[in-house]
Amino acid sequence: MTHPLDPLSADEIRAAAAILRAEGVARPDWRIATIALVEPRKDVVAGHRPGHSVLREAAVTAWNLREGTVIRAVVSLTGGSVLDWAIVPGVQPNVTVDEWHECDAAMRAHPDVVAALRGRGIDDPSLTLVDVWTYGADAPYPGRVGWCDVWLRAAPGANPYAHPVAGLKLIVDLNTMELREIVDRGDPGRPEVTGEYTADHTDLPTREPLRPLHIHQPDGPSFALDGYGLTWANWNLRVGFTPREGLVLHQLRWDERPVAHRLGFAEMVVPYRDPTPEHADRTAFDIGEWGLGFMTTSLTLGCDCLGEIRYLDACVNDSAGEPVEIPNAICLHEEDDGVLWKHVDGERGAEVRRSRRLVISSHVTVANYDYLIYWRLYLDGRIECEVRATGIMVTTPFVGEAPEYGTVVDTRTYAPIHQHFIVARLDLDVDGERNTVVMSETELVPDDPTGMGLRQRRVPLRTEQEGIQDVSWATQRTWKVVNPERGTAYTLVPGAAIPPLLPEHAPVLRRARAIAHQLWVTPFARDEQWPCGEFVVQSAEDTGLPEWTAEDRGIENEDVVLWYVFGIHHVPRPEDWPVMPVDTVRFDLKPTGFFRSNPALDLPG
Ligand SMILES: [Cu+2]
């Protein structure tokens, strides 16, 4: 039985592609970039009851490899027909996994590339990896163009990201997979580095293992899963998955009281802050370009998730429109979380309750980097979002003095400073759709002779321009999402806010103005999903948040959407090499007058 928010199934992906194929959108001339569920209107979702029939629609983005024409179609999966069809001029769709692999294979087989590699003493191209990146508006050739790093494995199965073939870039037409240009800026050589991290490629002794730690839930976990519907303690919600965002959460409720309609990540921008030619073009939009759903990897019991685990599978499309299954894409489990509340009374002794949390997680690998995403629900109503970045940093050899744009991590090798900006899209519905975001910060009581007085300054954000906010450490600013009718609220407690540090002339800023501030607030609009624009590959301008908010619509007592920008300001450490211990960032959504008092008083002792 399908719920309107269930992710697309393999059959539905196949059906969507078949509908377009019947219209001539098919191989070999066309590639399908994305097949995504069109989530129904909120009132339709709210009115849905189990057993009701569901109208399923998918949005398909495809492009013609000969002409470059990009189309966006909406198809009815229930009706088997095209509902809407439009050509989108002047854009490039997201880059597909197929293109990444085909580009790698085509370049490694290209005689000019083989010759260039041989010139650097690399005789076996099968040990190389060609990793394609995208451009902004400054692509050196017309059409769909990528630039490639070349990496070298020391042996079959070894870490390709250990050995950059530096000074060598390949520029590729991604529609024809033709090599447009080899850019050779000279060979800085390949220094002897310790870039391997697996036991079979290092002679590092293994530590004495710790004794076993088992997590037993003899009666099973305390959550129940019904399709994609999930209930645990006072919480219930639906788990979702889209090709672009990966894991999303829908309809979070506490004791049937709405808290959030939809939580997910809408964009990720990773600029490398190294102006040398090796890195100046290196900015990844991991969501708009590559898609966290497409990049989601299967999880392994006992390694990625410990304890009593339930998994959900996911499915995305390949560029022919065929389904690609991702088994164990989403992990659901409970974790003990230490103490939730406690007091030791002089007469009675200790009263203490343990905290437990429900963790909904998904892991994403984007080439060298890995992002581990955790949404956690707590027994006191708190929602925590955590991201752990791990994987392998991009490194470059240098000759002579180390460049000032990074950290030396190995012999003649540095890792450039870079930033990972994540834009979370938080469609909160606190006790209903109509909410007001109130900026709340602490200030000194003026003319207070004691010098001790503090008071809370609360400013309702009335329009989108007022909703553009920055963090303020000095005033401990937070943003309270208030239901004005009931006086209840949840607060966005900012964590891991990072400064853009981008001057006005930086092209990346023009493409990603969304990251210039930490909070944006918009009135809900179904088609406003992508904060840096729907099409970020080779984009010139951010056509998302800055364009929408230029209208300066009202956001007071509206169905508000919060866009929270956070991330990792990554100044590499030697210890991040050759594989990074996780760099962890998080933010919270905390009930703030959503309950009358501590909602976890009722936990059994
Ligand atoms: Cu990093």
Automatic annotation (TrEMBL):
Bias kind Basic and acidic residues: ranges: 198-208
Superkingdom, taxonomy of origin: Bacteria
Coiled-coil intervals: none
EC number: 1.4.3.-
SUPFAM superfamilies hit by this protein: Amine oxidase catalytic domain, Amine oxidase N-terminal region
Residue intervals of the Copper amine oxidase catalytic domain: 213-601
Cofactor(s), names only, from the UniProt record: Cu cation
Gene Ontology MF: a single term: primary methylamine oxidase activity
NCBIfam families xrefs: PRK11504.1
Protein family membership: Belongs to the copper/topaquinone oxidase family.
Name assigned to this protein: Amine oxidase
Organism of provenance: Pseudonocardia oroxyli
